[in-house]
Amino acid sequence: MLKGVLLGFACFAAFAISDAFVKSIHGTLPPYESVFFGAVFGLLALPFIKSRDDAWREVFVARKPALWWIRAATGAIGNVCSVTAFTLLPMAETFALIFLMPIFVTLLSVLFLKEHVGWRRWSAVVIGFVGVLVVLRPGFRHLGVGHLAALVCGLVAAVSVVALRMAGPHEKRLGLYGAGMIGPIVAGGLLMLPGFVWPDLHQWWLLAGYGLLAAMAGVLLMYATLIAPANRIAPTQYSQMLWAIGFGYWLFGDHLDWPMLIGIVLILGAGLFTLVREEQVTGWWRRARML
After folding, report:
1. Residue 80: beta bridge partners?
2. Quick one: which of 5, 8, 27 has its CA closest to 16?
3. Residues near 3 by Cβ (< 8 Å), separated by ≥ 6?
4. Inter-CA distances, 4 with 9, 202, 217, 219, 236, Å
5. Which of 92, 116, 159, 172 is the most exposed place for a label (fewest CB within 10 A)?
6. Whole-angstrom distance, CA of residue 95 vs CA of residue 85
């Protein structure tokens, strides 16, 4: 079990470092282009996810085709929004808004799965949104595209999770991971054509780090959840905030004021409670980010 938890920490460290790589591009490439090349590099994880009885064509199929398309669409939208948010906002602020995903899952589950939600999870939802208001402080600070992109990223990730819960445990990892890569490749490839900028050597290095580290993180998450209970792995996701604060301060000159730190703590606390509570009830987290 300890090995699985350590793999969880390693997985989310890799995700955070991947995000730092794409932030280091500083918007010198269009976000669609970063998403496209990052997803192409991400395909290198497929051989590690493919089991012996899987066929390569299953990258493009699912037992429920609607799920494959939802995964492809949310992968495309989520990746573009993630790159946009990390380009424009401090890393810690971006992670805080994306970490609303468990709270969005609760709301969508009530709307589409007709789940009963008790007062504890509703309280976490309220606290999470209070945290958002503290972080954003509408009317007191400038809000831009980056804030909207981070919120949309958290929302589409929640849509993907709810779709997986509706599909059940029968879909194969290969197809679900493949959809999450094919969607960004197609959408990013089409959107980048009008303003394509050929990356220089330094940008290629950053794009490779972005895509390869995200792919490695997906593989690590898969193995972590195979050898340890998902509710032990889930909290390791929030270690990304420590990486974000460190990278933001040392690499990007980000500075967080006290209201923002308080809001981040509220969001993280509410999200972590909701995530663990959801795991106790349904066990969805095991497939949430990698799949």
Report:
1. none
2. 8
3. 227, 228
4. 9, 34, 13, 12, 10
5. 116
6. 9
Contacts of 275 (CB under 8 A, 6+ apart): 102, 234, 235, 237, 285
Cβ neighbours for 137, distance < 8 A, ≥ 6 positions apart? 259
Distance CA 219, CA 134 (A): 35
Per-residue tens of pLDDT for the chain, all 291 residues = 678 888 989 999 999 999 999 999 999 999 999 999 999 999 999 998 888 888 888 888 877 788 889 989 999 999 999 999 999 999 999 998 998 888 888 888 888 777 777 778 788 888 888 988 888 887 667 789 999 999 999 999 888 878 777 765 667 778 878 888 999 999 999 999 988 999 999 999 999 999 999 999 988 887 887 787 766 777 788 889 889 989 999 999 988 888 888 988 998 888 778 766 655 544 443 444 444
pTM of the model: 0.86
Q: Cα separation of 16 and 95, whole Å? A: 9
User: How far is it, in rounded angstroms, from Cα 78 to Cα 104?
Assistant: 14
The pair phi, psi for residue 138, each rounded to 5°, is -60, 135
Number of H helices, E strands in the chain: 13, 0
Paired tokens of 259: 């209201």
Q: What is the largest CA-CA distance in the chain?
A: 56
